């Protein structure tokens, strides 16, 4: 049993966060670093993860950037190996990379877009978690970033919703298979104004006050990347040692 002062202490531990060049992934990477973790920022856009890693270091944290396409299994293996080579271990892996900018009814959706969405949002999580599990010691943790679209229908997003529903189930399956050595959980973010969400909804920052008002969330506002970072911190820290196989809505009450 941990002392309460240790509940959220990640000192000396190492986390990989995919899709951490912006949005929710950036928020998670920075919160983990603030609580002592060495963070490996991974994404396809090199300049974005280099910015996030440099901002973490400037704030007296530890971070490196590793350009990675999570749909490339060889690249994922290299990412895990780089984390271990640089920091000596691997304790946490956050599967955040994902999204789909395309909206279309399922019967009109291009097959290529279906395949791409499943590859990025579901298959990559299977690959990344499998690879991560081979590099983790005792008390490893995996956190999958799902979406409220896994449970709720959003017009034109059936392909994305299907992939995220798969993420919810693969979370439970991995938790069963990898426990007790590795805990696996997921969070389903609600409305957080990330680039991908705003592209999909065809809105700009000027539209956000109107969106916030129309949603009328019980929490009183739309979410921020740090809201998701706080949830991730709980599920990756000693505070949640008895939590695994869970999928939690972090959505302001939506």
Structure summary:
This protein has 8 helices and 7 strands; from the N terminus they run βαβαβαβαβαβαααβ.
* Parts with pLDDT < 50 across at least 5 consecutive residues: none
- Chain-averaged pLDDT: 95
Question: Which structural category do the helix and sheet elements fall into?
Answer: alpha/beta
**Main sheet?**
7 strands, parallel
Helix content percent band:
40-55%
Largest beta sheet: strand ordering: 3-2-1-4-5-6-7
Topology:
Elements: E1 14-18, H1 23-34, E2 38-43, H2 46-58, E3 62-67, H3 73-87, E4 92-95, H4 111-135, E5 140-145, H5 158-178, E6 182-189, H6 195-201, H7 208-215, H8 225-236, E7 247-250
Parallel strand pairs: 1-2, 1-4, 2-3, 4-5, 5-6, 6-7
Helix pairs in contact: 1-8, 3-4, 4-5
């Amino acid at each position: 049993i941990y002392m309460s002062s240790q509940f959220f202490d990640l000192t000396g531990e190492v986390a990989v966060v995919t899709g951490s060049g912006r949005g929710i992934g950036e928020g998670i990477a920075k919160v983990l670093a603030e609580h002592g973790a060495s963070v490996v920022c991974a994404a396809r856009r090199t300049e974005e993860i280099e910015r996030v890693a440099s901002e973490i270091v400037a704030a007296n944290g530890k971070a490196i950037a590793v350009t990675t396409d999570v749909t490339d299994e060889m690249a994922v293996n290299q990412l895990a190996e780089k984390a271990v080579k640089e920091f000596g271990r691997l304790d946490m892996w956050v599967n955040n990379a994902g999204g789909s900018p395309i909206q279309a009814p399922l019967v009109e959706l291009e097959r290529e877009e279906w395949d791409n969405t499943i590859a990025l949002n579901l298959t990559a999580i299977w690959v990344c978690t499998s690879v991560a599990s081979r590099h983790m010691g005792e008390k490893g943790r995996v956190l999958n970033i799902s979406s409220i679209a896994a449970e709720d229908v959003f017009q034109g997003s059936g392909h994305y919703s299907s992939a995220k529903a798969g993420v919810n189930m693969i979370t439970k399956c991995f938790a069963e298979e990898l426990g007790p050595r590795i805990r696996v959980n997921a969070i389903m973010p609600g409305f957080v104004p990330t680039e991908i969400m705003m592209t999909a909804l065809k809105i700009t920052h000027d539209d956000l006050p109107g969106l916030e008002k129309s949603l009328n969330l019980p929490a009183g506002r739309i979410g921020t990347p740090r809201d998701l970072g706080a949830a991730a911190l709980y599920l990756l820290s000693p505070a949640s040692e008895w939590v695994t196989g869970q999928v939690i809505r972090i959505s302001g009450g939506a």
